[in-house]
Amino acid sequence: MISRSPSSMKILSLIYAVFAWLIVAIGTLHMLATFRLASGSALGRIWFFGSGMAIAMVGALNLLHRTYGQSCPGVRIVCRAANVLLTSLAIVAGTVTGARVTQCCVVWLLLGGALILSCLPTQRQSSSFNKLSYFGNAI
Fold it and tell me: What average pLDDT does the segment 109-136 reach?
């Protein structure tokens, strides 16, 4: 069982940020690799580039979820759905294309880790966040 102490929540949040940034980096590398493709049609290269954009966007969505997921249920739901779909797609793509074991392990662990971290409960707003001071006297 995962402890909900502030220090363990900070560590999990840091790990989640690292995973999210690594997903953005993989998406960026995927887009840059498009220009190195010697074979394939123009349409295939466009789809390859678009796939890299989608990967990077899921990484960015995880960064948004990490920051705003507690207060924005829509971001939380969309992020988790995107993680499930991207992880599933990566498993199918790695299996169908015959990717090397190391490639599969790195990508699957990264995406699966982000999926798991996005589903963990987050720490509640800090006690220093005072709704009365935030909203003024309107409440």
Answer: 67
In a domain, 65, yes or no: yes
Per the structure, the count of domains in the chain is: 1
Structure tokens at 108: 């699957």
Domain membership of residue 99 (yes or no) is: yes
Question: Cα(61)–Cα(81) distance, rounded to whole angstroms?
Answer: 11
Per-residue confidence band for 111, with pLDDT thresholds at 50, 70 and 90: very high
- Is residue 137 domain-resident? no
Taking all residues of the chain, what is their mean pLDDT, rounded to a whole number? 85
DSSP letter assigned to residue 121: P
List % helix, strand, coil for the chain (3-state, nearest 5): 80, 0, 20
What does the pLDDT read at residue 1? 54
